[in-house]
Amino acid sequence: MSDPLLSSLRIAASGLQAQSTRMRIVSENIANTQTTGKTPGSDPYQRKTVSFASELDRLTGAEMVSVRNVGRDEAPFVVEHDPGNPAADENGYVKMPNVRMLVEMADMRDANRAYEANVQVVKQAREIINMTIDLLRN
Predict the structure, then answer these.
(1) How much is the CA Rg of the chain, to the nearest whole Å?
(2) Most buried pick, 29, 43, 53, 123, via CB within 10 A?
(3) Could you state one GO cellular component term attached to this entry (predicted)?
(4) Which CB contacts under 8 angstroms, 24+ apart, belong to 47-54?
(5) Based on the number of CB atoms within 10 Å of its own CB, is 136 exposed (0-12), middle (13-18) or buried (19 or more)?
(6) Tens-digit pLDDT profile for residues 69-102
């Protein structure tokens, strides 16, 4: 059996890494909300999604979180009439990314809160370790 404080730190670190990846993907989605195809009728930016997996850490025996994969959202593209756009088809319609800002902002807020929760776990574990060291000194 490993040290419970070490386990909590490793679990929180895996959560920090996973949520950091999630925030990066959401940021990419937000940055590409208006990215259309380069040629008429071509597909625009396709929203990315993140899925997580739970895996056993053999060193600590704890369940860690990891990014299983970064996939693509299969939702249909939004079609807008914009004949002046270089990506417009012969009828003047442009495929727009399947990124919805409201969904991305909610996902970013959720990832940020999960990240902050993991930071708090690290801070608390560090404080307990420091208190233990102080007790051992006295």
Answers:
(1) 22
(2) 29
(3) bacterial-type flagellum basal body, rod
(4) 47/72, 47/73, 47/75, 47/97, 47/98, 47/99, 48/72, 48/73, 49/25, 49/73, 50/21, 50/22, 50/25, 52/18
(5) exposed
(6) 999 999 999 999 999 899 999 999 999 999 999 9
Residues 6+ apart with CB under 8 A from 42: 36, 87, 95
Closest by CA to 10, choosing from 50, 51, 55, 68, is: 55
Nearest to 6 by CA among 61, 55, 67: 61
Give the whole-number percent of the chain exceeding pLDDT 90.
80
- How many other β-carbons are positioned within 10 Å of the β-carbon of residue 95? 20
Q: What's the domain range around 105?
A: 4-137
Please answer whether residues 50 and 102 qualify as being in contact, where contact means their C-beta atoms are separated by less than 8 angstroms: no
∠ Cα 80 50 117 (to 5°): 120
* Whole-prediction pTM: 0.86
Residue type, 63: E
Q: Which amino acid is at 126?
A: R
Alpha helices in 32-78 (DSSP H): none
